[in-house]
Structure formats: structure tokens, C-alpha cells
Amino acid sequence: MNRPPKHPRTATITGGVILALYLGSYAVLTLLGRYSSALPVNGTTVYVCHWQPRFMMSVPVHLTTGRQATVRNVPGTVYAPLVALDQRYWHAPQELVPAHAEYVPHPASRSR
Description:
Blueprint: H1 8-31, E1 34-35, E2 39-40, E3 47-49, E4 51-52, E5 58-62, E6 68-72, H2 74-78, H3 80-90, E7 94-96, H4 107-110
Antiparallel strand pairs: 1-4, 2-3, 3-7, 5-6
């Protein structure tokens, strides 16, 4: 039988500590991160590099069915909300276009 905690503040403090550790550990991991290897976009000559915090993989991919999915490892799944915010607001995808190719903007860069 689960009993409610004797001190409701204990649960609040515990939750706050866990949240602080979660956010703090992500901050350290993103400071140690780097941009991923370039991936081709839908078979075009445009290559995109995505920000990857240390030990994480969270890369959006375009499936042949036309849908978009995200490939992640376990740490990338645990920190998925923070990785998504980081990649959207601080570390935007970097487009690489070969010198001989015609520039076509990546769909993600048009939505900004």
C-alpha cells in the first residue's frame, strides 16, 4: 500500500532536484556536442549536418514513403525534448552544398 509522503515539500524538492540534474546534465552534454556527419536530403545534392550533444544521436530522416522520422539512440530518446529545442532554437541544421550544385533550401530552414 502506498502512503502519501509525510511532508509534501519533500516530493516537490525531490522533483526539483531531479529536474535540475536533468537540465544540468543536458547543458554539459550539449556543450561537449558537435555537428553530425553530412546526410543527403531526399537524394539531392544538399547535405545537412545536425547538432548532436555528446553521446547522443537524434537525426531527422526522410523515409521513402514521404514521411519524416527521427532516428535516436537511448540517450537521444531520454533527452529528446531538450534535443528538439536545442536543434530548433540554438543549433540549427547546417546545409552544405557542393560548389557545382544548384542551391535548394532544406525544408526545415524555410519554416523559420
